[in-house]
Amino acid sequence: MAITIAIASGKGGTGKTTISANLSVALSKFGKDVIVLDADIAMANLELVMGLDGKPITLNDVLAGSVSVEQAIYEGPAGVKVIPAGVSLDSFKKAKPEKLLEVLTKLHELGEIIIIDCPAGIGKEALTAISTAEHLILVVNPEISSISDALKVVAISRRFETNILGTIINRTTAEDSELSAKAIETILEVPILGIIPEDPNIRRCAAFGEPIVIRYPDSPASQAIMQIAARLTGKEYIPKKTEEKSFIKKFIKGLFGGGKK
Q1: Tell me, what's the pLDDT at 254?
Q2: pLDDT in tens, 6-50
Q3: GO:BP terms for this protein (predicted)?
Q4: Nearest in space to 210 (alpha carbons), one of 224, 198, 194, 222
Q5: Does 81 belong to an annotated binding site?
Q6: Which of 83-97, 122-136, 170-184, 233-247 is the least confident region?
Q7: Separation of alpha carbons 33 and 81, rounded Å
Q8: Where residue 255 falls among pLDDT bands split at 50, 70, 90?
Q9: How far apart are CA 5 and CA 136, in angstroms?
Q10: For residue 86, what pLDDT is reported?
Q11: Is 15 annotated as ligand-binding?
Q12: Is 14 part of any known ligand binding site?
């Protein structure tokens, strides 16, 4: 019997879909049979991150009752099963979000872990996705507006009795204006699962339609995501150390063709 994990955020722009896609691949790399489903039927983006845009049958068609969920499953990176929502306006108009629970019930027989990429915020579609999941991971940015909106998601999840596994702090830059992990944990009263730094490679990956944990596995964001997946699966993952060179060291190396590291 599969477990369902909703990936949610209080506001858009936190990187929730990127986390959903890459965490799914990371879990698959640890040997899990993973299905990732784009429940953001109005603003679908998961298929773009996974390189599966333009597929003829999508979740919207399933929710409209015209096809079975098995017909909307595609093989994605690292063997992850992907169910895109699709961008067709006609399919979206016919979709019935309340049928999501029925869809998830069928998926329980097809994988070990079901990742649900929820719509941002607390609209009808988001509430449906959160209420149908057993567990929830909250994605936030280290800024007060993101945390304020996340508090609403926490409150709603507890009302639905959806177990909150923890928070992923995404797109950190170590600037003084950012909220600390300790402060975020205190405000939300939810454990921190991991911290993912701002990484320019994520934008590059979006252009190629490939998850960062596959295209740039040694990048800071990839290693942080792999650590989170290891924590969720009870596996050990030792990230590679990346050497941080100061401007002076780089300058000296440039002048003399090398130098002490």
Answers
A1: 55
A2: 999 999 999 999 999 999 999 999 999 999 999 998 888 999 999
A3: cell division; negative regulation of cell division
A4: 222
A5: no
A6: 233-247
A7: 8
A8: low
A9: 5
A10: 80
A11: yes
A12: yes
Provide the token pair at 2.
Answer: 């599969």
With 0-12 CB in 10 A as exposed, 13-18 as middle and 19+ as buried, what is 201?
middle
Q: Does 128 carry a binding-site annotation?
A: no
Q: Is 12 annotated as ligand-binding?
A: yes
Q: Token pair 């965490």 is at which residue?
A: 23
Tokens describing residue 198: 């701002």
Reported residue count of the chain is 261
Residue pair 72/83 in contact (Cβ under 8 Å)? The answer is yes
Count other Cβ atoms within 10 Å, centred on residue 94: 14
DSSP secondary structure code for residue 147 in this structure: H
User: What are the structural domains of the chain?
Assistant: 3-256 (3.40.50.300)
Cβ contact 113:34 at 8 Å: yes
How much is the pLDDT for 24?
Answer: 98
Q: Is 58 annotated as a binding residue?
A: no
Contact 4, 128 (CB under 8 A): no
Of 119, 79, 70, 129, whose CA–CA distance to 99 is shortest? 129
Mean pLDDT calculated for residue range 93-100: 87
